[in-house]
Specification:
flat; single chain
């Protein structure tokens, strides 16, 4: 009968303030991350520091969330420290001491434990797929094999910064108009539900027929008072159900992504964004020595759109059968002719990675220009719409008062 494996529960991480004596009896002080006082004493001893006073500062467990920007900064810091000739474990220790976010400290400490137990850096990272995606792990593994880990980490950091910048532009295109219009509709609803009824009670004492615009506003106010809560519940419920359906059904998620690509202006931005992310990812993996087929598999997930993920999977299948990359891209009818032509030139010239990077740069610039154009065009439209919504309600409420003033 096999013995059940028992896991020792680790003590929580804390930040410790210490004071001690270093070489030549020099008084030193600082802060360290550790689980116990004994662990801190051991860390200081390795640095030839004799601890005199150690004080617990704060717990670092379970606070914060590791974000993409944290991982990018981690990769950049690891590349810098390793380029300076600092061993991996010492580099990880230095980063854990400099990082302020508790969740990132915990992650760095876990990687340190795995590396000190005999795992390579890529193997330790692979145990945290939410933070270190497949591309990250593959490139780190390639760097370890080639003896150029610092260069690969630098490349990963650069890649993630470019992808994050592209994501921010796309989010701006999606959220800016929606957020402003939502605020406008919200203000209008407040006017209809709260302000208009006060005017309506005042108008009842006039004993005269109200202007047509005022009558329409009063009717809208009555409808808003009666149905605003069910309408809000319906909208929120529909959004929640749609998200749940997209998570559970691949076909629903595919249909949503397909619908988004068909939207005017926004669809074009999403098209160009997917092409840019695909080519950027494939260029990064290919230039790092990752085989093309494996790079295509990684790039499929990086496209962040199921329509393009399916197209990239089709490209991979065609390349597996011996087709050239540019021809396989053309067969999907998803990639722009310019991108296909540039990839073709890169394959013929033997500089596919450089050409893929140029394609990514070109479409990133296109996305940026499109987003700037959309923002500049939407601003006057939004102002006009908000003016009509809010201004229309306000004017309709004051029309009877103006008429009374004229009659007097």
């Amino acid at each position: 009968m096999a013995k059940a494996k028992t896991r020792t529960k680790l003590a929580p991480l804390h930040r410790w303030k210490w004071q001690g004596k270093g070489p030549q009896e020099r008084v030193m002080k600082g802060e360290l991350i550790g689980r116990t006082r004994e662990e801190v004493v051991e860390q200081l001893a390795k640095q030839r520091i004799s601890a005199m006073r150690i004080q617990k500062r704060s717990s670092l467990n379970g606070r914060g969330k590791v974000k993409s920007v944290d991982i990018t900064l981690f990769a950049r810091q690891m590349a810098t420290t390793m380029r300076a000739g600092i061993p991996i474990l010492q580099a990880l220790q230095a980063i854990s001491e400099s990082v302020k976010k508790p969740a990132m400290v915990e992650l760095t400490q876990q990687i340190m434990r795995d590396v000190s137990s005999g795992d390579s850096l890529s193997q330790a990272m692979a145990k945290h797929p939410r933070q270190f995606d497949r591309l990250f792990v593959n490139l780190v593994a390639a760097g370890e094999q080639a003896g150029a880990l610092d260069e690969m980490l630098e490349r990963v950091a650069t890649y993630k910064e470019k992808v994050a910048s592209l994501k921010a532009r796309v989010k701006k295109a999606l959220w800016y108009p929606g957020a402003v219009m939502t605020i406008g509709v919200g203000v209008t609803m407040v006017l209809l539900v709260v302000v208009v009824p006060e005017f309506e009670s005042m108008f009842q004492g006039f004993g005269a027929e109200l202007p047509m615009l005022t009558q329409l506003t009063v009717r809208f106010s009555e409808l808003a008072q009666a149905f605003w809560l069910p309408a809000l519940a319906l909208i929120v419920g529909a959004i929640v159900l749609l998200k749940a359906a997209a998570r559970r059904s691949e076909s629903v998620a595919f249909s949503i992504d397909q619908f988004m690509l068909r939207l005017p202006v926004l669809g074009d931005i999403l098209h160009k964004s997917a092409v840019s992310r695909f080519t950027r990812t494939l260029a990064t993996t290919f230039s790092s020595g990752v085989p093309l087929l494996e790079g295509l598999e990684t790039a499929s997930g990086a496209a962040d759109n199921r329509v393009y993920m399916k197209a990239i999977d089709e490209v991979r299948q065609d390349v597996t059968t011996g087709q050239q990359l540019h021809f396989a891209m053309r067969l999907t009818n998803r990639f722009p002719p310019l991108a296909v032509q540039m990839v073709n030139i890169g394959e013929e010239a033997g500089s596919l990675d450089a050409m893929l990077n140029r394609v990514a740069d070109y479409y990133e610039e296109e996305v940026e220009n499109k987003v700037d154009t959309l923002t500049s065009l939407m601003e006057p439209v939004i102002i006009v719409v908000l003016g009509l919504l809010v201004g229309g309600v306000v004017v309709s409420m004051y029309l009877p008062i103006f008429e009374i003033g004229t009659a007097l």
